Amino acid sequence: MADITQLLQSLITGVGVGLIYGLVGIGFCVIYNASGIVNFAQGVFVMLGGMICHALLTRLGLPLVLAAVLAVPIVAGIGMLIETLVVRPMWNRGATMFAIILATLATQIMIERITILTLGDQPRSFPEFTPGGPLKLGDIAVGYQLFWILGCGALMVGLLWLFFTRTRTGRALRACSQNREAAALLGIPVGRMLLVSFALSAALGAVAGILVTPTQVTAFNIGTPFGVNGFIAAIIGGFGSAAGALAGGVLLGVLQAAAIVLFGAGFKNVAALSTLLVVLLLFPSGIFAGFKGFKRA
Amino acid sequence: MALLSVQNVTMRFGGLLANDNISFDVPEGSIFAVIGPNGAGKTTLFNSIAGSLKPTSGKVVFDGQPITGLPQAAIASRGLIRTYQLVQLFKDLTVAENVEIGFHRVTRGGVGSALLRPRWFREQEESIARKARELLAFVGLGDQADMIADKLPYGRQRLLEVARALAAEPRLILLDEPAAGLNTQETAALADVIHRVNERGVTVLLIEHDMGLVMKVAQRIAVLDFGKKIAEGTPDEIRSHPDVLTAYLGGVEMADG
Amino acid sequence: MTSPAITSTRASWRDHAGSWLPVLATLALLGVGLSSSGYIVTVLGFAAIYGVFSTGLNFFMGYTGQASFGQNAFAALGGYGSAILTAGHGMEPVLALLIATTVSVAIAFAVGYPTLRLRGHYLAMATFALGLITYEITIEWTSLTQGYMGYSGIPPIGLFGYELVTEKQMLVVLVAFALLGVWISNRLRRSRFGRALAAIAGSEPAAAALGVNVAGYKLVAFVIAAAYGSVAGSLFAHFVGFISPEVFGTSMVVLSFTMLYLGGIGTTWGPLVGAVIVSLLPEALRGLKELQDVAYCVILVAILIFAPRGLAGFAPAIKQFFNRGAAAKAE
Hints:
Chain B: One of its GO terms (biological process) is L-valine import across plasma membrane. Chain A is mainly α. Chain A is 75% helix and 2% strand.
């Protein structure tokens, strides 16, 4: 019976981590929909969210809430910086898609190194948002932070929905994802939409990073695993829909948690990456027509 | 005897009937044209023949063998070579290199021979280089052999695509709207090249919108309208065919090609 | 004034200069290496090893126009294969290198066959995942790889008991490997095989329409790149005598891409030229210390933005300059 408890316990943890993957996955989709670019540096926003929040907390002694609220716009600003300095110049010169992917990958490494130099290479963490807990349900413990993740995840999806349906910018962004040429003809500044999408996507990543840090740790090198898992979540969810990415993330998180119980923690990343390959190979270019139809002039 | 035989080809996309039971035979050594107004199903038919689409029903027979639904490379390897409506050149390579690649089907050799360069390999390379220049001269691009293909004017890119297709020594060359985007002068040069290609013994099937070109070069014409074949015959027969006049020209008097 | 005969002799002279000048330059560099101190020898050794790696990558990314962000996986296979077989089992280094390369080639076939059906971002992410999986395995399978600690005590390369003990002896072998790698690359490019790869890079539909088996050629290019990567990994293990997972990590991907793009992707000599320049960069960037990795990334991004064809992009301008000079002289 202990094994069942253990499994249930890890599944609950999996849901929390999975929601985080889902938020990262939505970040991928936001940029991809606006531009057709897949930003390989997506995971770096998760890392920066946690690290910057931690730095504001410990170095400036800010209260947790303030640190968290401040960290998000800072990371969004970094996202806009990446767009302005790296992605847009290449985009304007008609660089190949592989070159842009490579540039975002290089950007990720650059940011990781700068993080080591400024914030250190040690793993960091900060306390859960609500002290106390965990909540006991029989033998199963549910940390309070999970509710924060659930709540903030729902809040983010709600805000995104409002943004995309109720604001001019959001609607323009959606128009771009439907048909960029037509959007440009309608007078939508397609170039600026790329900037908006990077800011939005970085903010999503930062929220994810801040939410997840109390449940584990953050360090300069957590970007790649979160980026890859977020990408898998986005793929499972259909690379386009926010709800799909969130559901994909939860599925992936639960699978991973189960894999850890069954095979041990050591090969957790190998399991996740193999899932990626299997998903990719079972649905080669087929399930999301957007990829196939997308062509750079 | 028919080199290519299209037999009852039907292509359905959901509710849309793009090709409805189309049949015709392309005799060996002829210049055959398929014409029709925009949306008549020409491109769909072309793709069914060339292998990028598998028809819903019906057969395409090349040289006595069914080729329906075979992959593009397999169809090419039998000697049926196509060109593209929007030219698909190897843009970063020179004009001569583009044609040299065309010889892929009719030459041999892989990694091993490329490393060891035995005598037959060197002779083959020399012959490829020489024949490529000959083909370029043949289509009138002899002077531009060392240019980067992308830098050629559009009309000449078309001719280069024809030269590259000829390098593959096709038995049948399938031209997809070769006159699209060409001016009168370029179209005339193209017509001349098509004639001379045919004189080399290559069967030509062209799918074309431009009446002038078709009337000038084709020996036999099939007319499509709304996915159906409405007429087939010599240019003179087509010119005076009442259905063609109403359907294709909307009653307007036909200009002499 | 240019009769066809003159043009053709000049073209052939230029062709020969084009293929011999880099060889002479490489040998000159080898001479410099042999007559200088240990540090330069080490740097040039790395340059030659990375030259082999990047030249291989160029088959897949340059000639064929595909993308692999996970070629470091095969360097890790080669490196760990050689380390385990020689240091762990006392095997002859050359034999170990051959076995490791064979294994890499077999794995590249098996992995490449399904993976290369993917396109675009999916191909990029899937190959990236291959590299990451290999990295994780080298860390986690400690009984085989000794994990984070790395594998030490790898003997220098040698044959029949005769070992190349000094770094300078080893440098000669490494440079020979690099030149052999470029020679093979050059021969393969100028052949029916190389033209088929170029056709795929130019337009896959057009290549298929001319009878090129697109999937098959892509796979062969991928496997060749894997073989080069594996050999480079083996050479690294023997040259340094120690390997760890970090050696074949993601930064290897970025480093090799920097070399490839700096020298000129798709050119025969570009990858090796890029490898030499990038390997010498730490000398120039010495003042930056910890910022070195950042500097690499900045350089790579700058090349990608401003000169996507690398140094090779300047070749036509230089050629034009010389031609103009020749024309002026003729008049």
